[in-house]
Fold this protein.
Amino acid sequence: MKKKIKLAVIVCAAAVFVFAMASSRQSAQTRGPQVETIGQRFKNIKVLTDVLADQLGKLMNIFSASLNVNCSFCHYTDDFSKDGKEEKEMARKMIAMTFSINKEHFGGETEISCNTCHNGQMHPQSRPSLEPTQHSAGHGPRPGQPTAKPEASAVIAKFVAAVGGDKKVESAVVTAERLEPDGKTVEPETINFKSGKYSAKVVYGKQWVTDLWDGAKAAKFGPDGSHRLHSDEAEQIRREAQLLFPAAIGSAYSKFEYRFADKIDGRQVYVLIGTTADGFRERLSFDAESGLLVRRVASTPTVLGSFVYQVDYRDYKNFDGVKVPTVVKYAMPNIYWTRKVSSVKLNVPVADDVFAVPGS
Ligand code: HEC
Ligand code: HEC
């Protein structure tokens, strides 16, 4: 059991590792108009030299997810800059090859990425499968589209009503468990909420990490201080704060557009694009029948295709007239966890100091 917790800490640490590691060097630098590259921030870079430094962590997770391997497949994890593993050298050749295919055959668009060939396998298969398949003449069947296109505003209004729209949540304390991808390891999580401010603390044995939205900016920190946050990660923490009580969805996005009907887990959903005041676009899927938000997808571009954040909202339960999803699944390339909410206490006192970064 102890071993498992340790493992989870390591896995989690690996996911945040890249940000944490770089934060010390960042502080020495002035924030100028010129943007730091991977070659400037990291020690032993031969191919990704000119790519924006903030993409490194995402690219590493895209590699791992595409090949279905851990960081240690290519790295000595005591020092990620060390060379010596054949796989790391091969990966460098593969990155160069992928860039060149895109450049020469796709006009520089990132049409091909590691996953196009690897598709979750170390060794891509060049031989076609011998399993009989259903051939289709064209594209697969599109889920049926409603005869009358729903208005985005009606979809949002139905959702807000379904989650108890007019009930006011000024403050709240939510207790939850964070379930790791092994399906067994569980860490306690406490979320404090007050007037739009949000602080979510997850405890990993002796370690802990807090995601904070203080009403104006996001932060992530643990016992050893602040972690570096990229702008897209900060935006995601902000969205967590805005959608903890989802009736506030109208304050998160300034514009909604209806796109099409689709199916998720066999149920019809209406897909909307929500655009924030700052221009971030996210795809929101609402259950056509219940009206509830079932999926939110955001993405950030990298030189090897989009890094996707997908959040699935399940098992909405009623807490004093407010409906909250009690099973929330987070998925990114190589990073997964599930939040299981066990209690929601509404309009209870919450101290202000939980919304401050310690030592700032
Ligand atoms: C398929 C192989 C592969 C996997 C898997 C992989 N990496 Fe890498 N990683 C590389 C390569 C190749 C480089 C060097 C890129 C270059 O030279 O341009 C690199 C560089 C790095 C660096 C920069 C080190 C430095 O200072 O020079 C870090 C940090 C890093 N990886 C972290 C990770 C983490 C964390 C994971 C797991 C989430 C991971 N990597 C998974 C291939 C991989
Ligand atoms: C055009 C197809 C294609 C693309 C794109 C591609 N690969 Fe590969 N990759 C292959 C093939 C084929 C092999 C050889 C498999 C074998 O040896 O069985 C391979 C092998 C590898 C290996 C060695 C695996 C081992 O078992 O030692 C690594 C590491 C690797 N690829 C990483 C990557 C990374 C990282 C990317 C994205 C930057 C990438 N590949 C993109 C086709 C591709």
